[in-house]
Specification:
Metallo-beta-lactamase, Chain A, alpha/beta, 8 helices, single chain, NDM-1-like, seven-stranded mixed beta sheet, about 250 residues, five-stranded mixed beta sheet
Length: about 250
Amino acid sequence: MRADVHHVADGTYLVHGSNTNWVILTEGDAVTLVDTGYPGDREQVLASLAEVGSSPEAVAAVLITHAHNDHVGSAEYLRATYGTPVYLHEAEVPHARRDFLHQVSVGTVLRNGWRPGVLPWVVHALRSGGTMHNPVTTPEPFPAAGALDLPGRPVPVHTPGHTDGHCAYHVPGTGVLISGDALVSGHPTARIEGPQLLPDMFHHERPRAVASLDVLAELDGELLLPGHGPVHRGPVRDAAHRARERAL
């Protein structure tokens, strides 16, 4: 299956999976993979690595923004098959192990089924493994504070609210912000396009998700790579402010 890969900056690729994005950061023969789509996106994950001239063996680490199944889909596969370390914020590690699950409930989704786009999204999520039990057996907290010693030198930025341990990744060298679900530019269930929060039902603690936009607004960058939606070009600060305005 061909992956929808976009070269967006030096050594940086945004990949559109089935309703979810992931990012590949390259440095020589090694890569950092940020998020891994749904479990059903595995062929696309592997195809995207091949398209940028890499392979699963060359993945130095998988970084996870948060441990929902549409972002952590192939993390355990890469860890178990290739020994790839899987790193998250320390507050997200037990979530990845499935000690608990911060995720929209079936009941909440059904109550929102009348909203445009919700039912098609549910069907897709079910078919892609969105509700399957898919833990990462041995997820690890970040090995050090600050920039990680990985291709791209990404800097984790704790942005709680969507989940307790949600992290964005700032890549100062290229002006890139990998925002996960803390700041998106679209979603099948959203009614608007451009910088925004996901619909309210998806956040574990919406007030903290809104507050995390202020954290993102402090970061320098001109390229927003969200967990959902297309690449957004322009100051990250302005994108975060726009999303906050829309959330109030």
